[in-house]
Amino acid sequence: MPENDVPRWPSDDKDTSSAEPQGAKREGEATVWLPMSGLANGKTEELSVPKVTPESGSWFQPVVEAGSLDEEPDVPKTPTPQWSAFEPVTPVTPAEPEQDEEPKTRFVKPVQPQYGDEPDWDQFDRDPVTPPREAEPPAPEPSQEPARQESPGQEPARQESPRQEPPRQEPRRQEPRRRPEQGRIEPPLPAPVPSATMHARPVRIEPSEERFDAEATVGIQRPEPPSQEPPAAGTEAAPAPKPKRRRKALLITTLVVVLLLAGMGGAAAMPKVSNRLGLPWAPNAPKGEIPKPAAVTRVLHGPDVNGAAPTKEGLAAALAGPAAAADLGTLTGTVVDAATGNVLWDKNSGTALTPASTTKILVVAAALLSMDHGTQISTKIVQGAEPGTVILVAGGDPSLTSLPLGTDSPLYPGAAHVDDLVAQVKKAAGGKIAKVQLDISVFKGPTSAKGWDPEDTAAGNTYMAPVLPVMADGGRADPKNDHSPRVANPAAALTQKIAGKLEAQAGGTTTAPKDAKVLGEVKSQPLSEFASSLMQLSDNLMADVLARQIALTKGAEPSFTGGATATMNVLDQAGFDLTGVQINDGSGLSDQNKIPAKVLSEILAVAAAPDGKDPRTAKLRPLLAGLPVAGGSGTLEKRYGDPASAAGRGWVRGKTGTLSGVNTLAGVVLDTDGRMLVFALMSSGSDQNKGRAALDVVAATLHQCGCR
Questions:
Q1: 366 phi, psi to nearest 5 deg
Q2: pLDDT for 508-559, tens place per residue?
Q3: Which residues are catalytic?
Q4: Model confidence, pTM
Q5: Cβ distance 309 to 341 under 8 Å?
């Protein structure tokens, strides 16, 4: 590069060319002819160039068009080059001037090149003695930052982060310039501003509008940053190019959405999916109007009295074989027509035998007859006599559940939650609770009955716990498993659980003061539901607790003796013949209990009688709702699986009873004519499994019998 980046061509306007090609005059102005090579068509042509004279002006004299955008009133202007960086010019190689002639300055009119031809921009930067360079290495990535020219006296501009270029304006065409000593045509430049600190880096602009860093060019300055001012009136700014990546991302997103919609549409067309989503085109979609909901009640109605009743002879013939099975041991029993109350079959039904759990029929019947069916058993926590002390007051509900709020007990549906009770106490206490005491004074007497096996209340057994007036989940260790082992002292265990939830200590037993402030209270299921859970599970503990509730209702002592006595009194007062009945508990665990089969069948027959026939029927009807269903629920869920008894599945409903050597079954069944039959069967001296199976066969035979 020449020193100080100063152009080295004549500074005057004299014509220093050594020879002038032949030319012609154009209206008094001399012209010269220069050969032009390297054109797009590959030919060499001569270019007519006006001759510069003192009268015509200097070669360096800038020409400013009237009305140019560069004009500003009263402001001196820097000559604006008329060269367009977007329109390449094919260089012209003039004839070599002779050295002995005085050089002349020629004003050369530029020739418009063919678009698409790439000019050799490097030729403008070469020194006359520098040979043409070989092909340049691949250009670097185009810079997003436009080249800027630094003002004189300022520090060189720092490299800033890339920023989006504003819309470019249509460049104005400029006149080319020429270096006389090199014989090349170059674009004219504005007069450089002398500056000692001026080190602008040249930028090469391709016709495709891409910019590349290039070597410093003699006399060519970098274009100034584009102005942020809006374009002048009448000038329409070209829109900025859209990023390709954004268009590509938009295309991919659109494709993904289309595929998802197509997949969802295909899935929705599948029958299983459309059925589950309830779509209109689903195969199981309603074909007509949705019916209005019908009112449902849980009130049981009496049997159909229109069907033909079996005859005694026909029934006796049907039961001759099953009732005489050796596996039954000693069998007593009776079959009654529920519609009429007539006895259709009888085998020693007046003989009192050990009833086992069918004792519960008497207890539930007495409770339904003597108590309101909506009665709920209350459990409270009251303020103690000492500050920071509360007392858990038991009311006789063993069905409290320790499951979290919102989770219903699978054993006792509708049972109260311990967490509910604790939450009430926390809210009402108004301070820290230090001690939780237990009041179980509502029950009296021993916790086990006469005739019980010592193991019946031992810790770890799966069918009974000590009869106490409060506990969680019937004393089970697992609140969801009916056959879970029972804890040794379920009332104390519940007190400890509540104390832990209140961050307090369990403080033993006491008696709550009268009229103590109630901090929390929860209640059991209503009596009808309580009795249903008792019958379904054949829950021994609930039966003995219910016997004590009958005693409390009748003003008797809430103990085993008081409960048994109150039960007998209620049934006797209701008109039932209790001859031969002897009970010591409400559960039937006592092997000292004795009940004739006819007492069981009489109570069930009243419960199953037609509506309005017997005033006791309405109160006893819930007794039937709690009877387990053969092969379907409760203690009959896993029975009636043998071929000999399978006909009774779903038709037989009965209360079971099992002790060592004792098997009993009492309930109702529909025969083939739709007639309801009441039965009570008691087997003594039989094997448990074989005796049960034999009883199931007898009940299934009743269902299959038209028996006329």
A1: -65, -40
A2: 999 999 899 999 999 999 999 999 999 999 999 999 999 999 999 999 999 9
A3: 357, 360, 538
A4: 0.61
A5: no
